[in-house]
Amino acid sequence: MPESGLRLLIFVAVFALVALCEHAWPRRARRQSRGTRWGINLGLLGIDILAQRLTLGAAALGMAVYAQAQGCGLFNLQAWPAWLSAVAGFLLLDLAIYLQHRLFHVVPLFWRLHRVHHTDLDLDLSSGFRFHPLEILLSLLYKVALVAVLGISPVVVLVFEATLSAAALFNHANLRLPTKLDAALRWLLVTPDMHRVHHSVIPAETNSNYGFFISLWDRLLGSYCGQPSAGHLGMTIGLREYQREDQIGLMQLVLIPFRQPEADHSQLAGKVDRR
Prior knowledge:
This protein is mostly helical and 275 residues long. It has twelve helices and no strands. InterPro entries: Fatty_acid_hydroxylase (IPR006694), Sterol_desaturase/TMEM195 (IPR051689).
């Protein structure tokens, strides 16, 4: 099965499973109709896929194949066991995505792109693919460069990409996990409750919990926030400057990066509950 087909199969399977779990154990009531939001988020996903197909495609995997064939990159120059290179490659890719996410909150130009993701008024699995196409392409270029420098194997790249897609669906889910299970899982993995804090309208909470799959980076690098100050049921999701439905239609989201920001959200700060 080609790489794109395998990723699609995994995506559909995880999407169906998470959607069923959301329906059975929802965490919050919706502010916006599911049909409206899913139409917008799926529409943005379609634009993202088209943008990739017309430009870079599966460039990260292609670079991994090339680096392996040419013996380029750090891991291809070391006599490490294959399993050690694989684990190190996966961890470094996940750390790199954490650092990229944090950078997109700090650099104003990147924030113009990334704030599209934060305009969602609710949070569910469809939020996991609410990204501006230019952000997707920049992220892909970043991963291509990482794969080239590190010489990460094609199998690890494929596994990482599938994991990242599945994790985005899971950690954006409107899913109520048992408190003890959530507390145990988040010592290693990003849970829906942990990531939901990142989508708070309170800037200090938005600028925390940047991890997508492994939660340790937030704890180790000082960006972990345990709980939202208003609680998970009382918190407001989104950005203060984009709280109306008429501001966040599909075409408006595509144009948001090219409009003057109403507030420099990345520079604001406040108190954070880091328990």
